Amino acid sequence: MSKIPVLEIFGPTIQGEGMVIGKKTMFVRTAGCDYSCSWCDSAFTWDGSAKDEIVQMTAEDIWNRLKEIGGDLFNHVTISGGNPALLKNLNELINLLKQNEIEVALETQGSRWQDWFTQIDDLTISPKPPSSNMSTDFAILDRIIHNLTDHNRLEQTSLKVVIFDEADYQYAKGIGERYPQIPLYLQVGNRDVHGEDIDNLTSTLLNQYEQLIDRVVQDDELNNVRVLPQLHTLVWGNKRGV
Amino acid sequence: MSKIPVLEIFGPTIQGEGMVIGKKTMFVRTAGCDYSCSWCDSAFTWDGSAKDEIVQMTAEDIWNRLKEIGGDLFNHVTISGGNPALLKNLNELINLLKQNEIEVALETQGSRWQDWFTQIDDLTISPKPPSSNMSTDFAILDRIIHNLTDHNRLEQTSLKVVIFDEADYQYAKGIGERYPQIPLYLQVGNRDVHGEDIDNLTSTLLNQYEQLIDRVVQDDELNNVRVLPQLHTLVWGNKRGV
Ligand code: SF4
Ligand code: SF4
What we know:
2 copies of one chain form a homodimer.
Chain A: E1 4-14, E2 24-30, E3 55-57, H1 59-70, E4 76-80, H2 90-99, E5 103-108, E6 122-125, H3 138-150, E7 157-163, H4 166-178, E8 184-188, H5 198-217, E9 225-228, H6 231-236
Parallel strand pairs in A: 2-4, 4-5, 5-6, 6-7, 7-8, 8-9
Antiparallel strand pairs in A: 1-2, 1-3
The structure holds iron/sulfur cluster (2 copies).
One iron/sulfur cluster binds near residues 35 and 42 of chain B.
């Protein structure tokens, strides 16, 4: 079996955001990203700061570790990054999880296609808005959505856009217009990914969440969306591994 | 057209809980309930305190009112109560909404079946745990789930149990065991439905949410659940009409 670069395996906990918000799950966080978003809350996956924590693991190593810490307490695993879609051989892990009747969720920004996308039960494509300083390659994103449509995977797919400012909001509307067939989730951006004052962070995030709701409910071009906060940040702040 | 007793029509806002949490929606709240849960957060729908606010409306009246306040800002309507399942003639409203390409969500405790259940896009059945002081008629609940299964409506159905204490938690586990084929949502109970100090309420609810998560993640009999807070209470406290 080939190796997968892993930075964190933790859980069980709950998924704090997106299409399966609240779901009991384990997390596997892969190392490496082709983006470098200005506000990345997982920058340690790609900025070198956690280089020494990266472990090269086979799919079986990862499964063993999941069972070691999660025991019988889970039937859902979320793979996040970094960008797990950089890893062609992730299919080995996905297959192994499915063989063990584990549901698999995965989040990626939509900069790369992998054939194993069609095996994911809850696939979140989260294109990055202007405030990230990244720019979306819409030719690739179109192809990804097209492939998922061809493989009849729309029920397992959602789009998620994090909103920090007006330009991000407009970007999200563009995404909604471009892919009206895919459920769209808007998520409040966390400007303070290193802050340690949880009470303060919670009230700031809830205020921003309220503002985003106010905006969306008055916008007749965004009738078909879901607007969500990050529950794990409300509960645990910026702590890692929960 | 026959009349429907309505207590509130408001929105657009977001759905704060359950299977379509975060969804942009309008709310129609019907009057009347066959239960009287100890911690009911909508007691004004049945305790007589808002008797003078009840308006008898036809389906068309309701639709006109929705358009009047919601304009073009919605394509989803949530019907709640009270117990809207007391109203056989609600099918007139549901049909009218569907004719206008509006998706319909509805919440009921599962004490009555109505044939129009099979027309609902997002049906939440929320049986009430012991702390409510109500007791579940499982013969009826079984029949409801059976009918929904027969009509191939499981993808549009979820179960939701509000948890206040240990007995409620055990009750929720029983619900999960009894209906393993239906997605189960556990929701943190709000003990303080009249409190006006939002900051305090938010931090209490987030603490209780964290405790419920801690409990669920250590319980191998509840692997397949989603654990959620009430987002509207986190954002707006106990205010009505948001
Ligand atoms: S795509 Fe995700 S992991 Fe990569 S830099 Fe952006 S936020 Fe961070
Ligand atoms: S079933 Fe719902 S509306 Fe009726 S008393 Fe209980 S909580 Fe209140």
